Amino acid sequence: MQKNIILAGVGGQGILSIAYVIDNAALDAGFHFKQAEVHGMAQRGGAVQSHLRYGDGPVHSDLVPIGRADLILSVEPLEAIRYWHYLSPDGWVVTSITPYVNIPDYPELDSLIEDLAGFGRIVLVDSSVLARAAGNLRAQNTVVVGAAAPFLDFPDETLLKYVETLFAGKGQKTVDVNIRAYRLGRAAGLFFRGLVDGGLGVPDAVRLCRKIEPATIDPAQAAAWAAAILGDRLLLEQTLAGESVVPCDRVAALA
Amino acid sequence: MPREVLLGDEAIGLGAIHAGLSGVYGYPGTPATEIFEFVERRTAKSGDVHAFWSTNEKVAYEEALGMSWAGKRALVCMKHVGLNVAADAFMNSAVTGTNGGLVLAVADDPGMHSSQNEQDSRIFAQFALIPCLEPRDQQECYDMMIEAFDLSEQLALPLMVRLVTRLAHSRSAVATREPRPQNPLKPTREIRKWTLLPANARVQYKHLTDKQPELLRRAEESAHNRLTLAGRRGVITCGIAHNYLLENLENGHDFSVLSLAHYPVPGGLIRQLVEHVDDLLVLEDGYPVVENMVRGLFGLNGVRVRGRMTGEVPRTGELNPDLVRSALDLPPHPTAHEPSPGLAGRPPALCKGCPHTDTFRALNEALSGFDNPQVFSDIGCYTLAALPPLEAVHSCVAMGASIGMASGAAHAGYRPAVAAIGDSTFAHGGITPLLSAVQQGVNLKVIVLDNGTVGMTGTQRSMSTGDTLDQIILGAGVAPDHLRIIEPTPANHAANVQILRDELAWEGTSVIIARRTCLEAIKRRAS
């Protein structure tokens, strides 16, 4: 077994923190691993990526070859697209759809989401909404780790252990925020996939996910949501038009 | 054996500590910075390794040489272009030889991720007639440092360990060993060896050339240089290039492979390979050093030598597994998606609220009356002011070059001659050209962007900031009336423009210090 991951984002978004968590989980599991990262000039708000490879046999190249990545894990939607030629034909993209706009020619978000939706093997989470719900906007990177967790080869406890180690120096409050961010990201990612696998289009799934109260997101209810919306197209617009957020279990009343 | 997750740079640092290191020296520079930082952090509690950033690479090298003279083990680390600055001391340290182990860890930057060129330090090792080790992975970074210190003491020569950005900044698990104790203080008394007056230098240089067969023998017999003879197609890899080859070879392949990691280039091993193959591909991350040696001026009879010089591998840029795949004539891997053409780029930029932005806005306005004014800049975050929207600086060549170049332009009659340089870069290479300008009375305007830190490489300590900086400038002879200090903020914009205009109007050497602390440094100090 070998897993090749491209971590992507913008300098300052905490890509190297994500790498730290997965590196140590790989070490814990007794895997071989290598993880190449970007330091220096690019860290000043530039595009930043890290190549992370682990497996039960020796890892040769520090860089993932083009066409060999199993997963792109991105904290930013434009940055996910920048590297998708690295993906193998059955590779997946897990990305935040919160844009980080620090360039004048940043594309329209809707067209970015459309490009991503066209790709198919994709998990989209709105990391800013979820990180804020967890208690700190800076925890967006941890949200995306949670969303990607089902694609990694480690139990949640292991990943959470290193989330905890990583933030231990910043106090218990920061640790708690990041543990919540991980759990919210994990649930939101699975919920999103549940909607899409249930037949909902990606743009609709994105809109619905943004409407659900983060703390209540329950992947087990995704299929019911998808069925309810597919059964009655008005239902989605009614749900979106209503009060600010909707608890996930509202679906029981709708079905 | 315990295992630790380490960057290539950090593995270099830990290897040195476990080899009995007594002092680490260097000047910050990507991709080498983390070597020093790791040693500094790791030994902070014990305090038994001297770790204090030097003013520049030359000073660092000389300090390390002094520690070696005193019998202790010293590590000096820098980026490839830093070795240009240290070259005088470096070249001559091969002639004096060493006492305590002296290892130069130099990180090259193929692909120029953060540099002005991609010069290959292996050529510097050849030039100085010293051995060079080139680790393939993080474990070898660690192991080779321990070996390099032993070799340095056995041969009484400085050793070079060369790595490239990709290895410097890639992490893996490294198995570590029991640390060796430090050497006792044991200064050398061999005065003639260390005093390179011509009569002594001739003797020492003869010693150095006499050692060469021994260096070559060790490289030929080194366990790091591995020859596997198989089919008639051969590959030579240097350092990290070996990983890219392995990445592309299938089990049961038929290539004959020589993997090199210990120099001088072992001609005997290469001869064995050459006599066995018809076709030889040379893979190295950096210059075609080995490729050109193997081919020579006239090529090899009956063996096609391929590589960067023949187009199978691009002449410039960083090596990677995809380029090696293509050089091996293997088809590209299928991918899930084509690259997206025309995707908006995201270049690095000055941070929001950066003091440099305010300085350059003021400078742009102050210069607006001149016809297409050009500003000589230097190396640091402020070089990013060359990009839109500021487009405020128009050169970047070498550490400290802004002041010398602006002076030269002024000598030629160019007006206004303006240099922009950071506080740490000023300490590194700006003091001597300023002194030179003052002595000549050059009509020169030097803006020192004093943000109190080495910003680009991660907010290391600056040697000349605040009062120290002011005193150096006055000490160099700049007239007190024409040393102006401004605080670059949006609120001070109009006043700052006026001060700059006043100095631009004055015929003489002025220095304007734009002083406000780096935001990143404030953030780091708080956390």
Write a compact overview of the structure shown.
The complex is a heterodimer of chains A (255) and B (527). Chain A is an alpha/beta fold and 255 residues long.
Question: How does this model look, in words?
Answer:
The complex is a heterodimer of chains A (255) and B (527). With 255 residues, chain A is an alpha/beta fold. Chain A has eleven helices and six strands. The mean pLDDT of chain A is 95. Chain B folds into three domains: 3-210, 3-Layer(aba) Sandwich (Rossmann fold); 226-327, Rossmann fold (3-Layer(aba) Sandwich); 355-526, 3-Layer(aba) Sandwich (Rossmann fold). In chain B, β6 (132-133), α6 and β7 form a beta-alpha-beta unit. In chain B, α15 (355-366) crosses α19. The mean pLDDT of chain B is 97. Classes of the chains: A alpha/beta (255), B alpha/beta (527). At the A-B interface, α1, β2, α2 and β5 of A face β8, α11 and α14 of B. β2 of chain A pairs antiparallel with β8 of chain B, so a sheet runs across the interface.
Point out poorly predicted stretches of chain B. Answer: none
CATH architecture of the largest domain in chain B: 3-Layer(aba) Sandwich
**Which class of the largest domain in chain B in CATH terms?**
Alpha Beta
**CATH 4th-level superfamily of chain A:** Pyruvate-ferredoxin oxidoreductase, PFOR, domain III
The main sheet of chain A comes to: 6 strands, mixed
| Mean residue pLDDT of chain A | 95
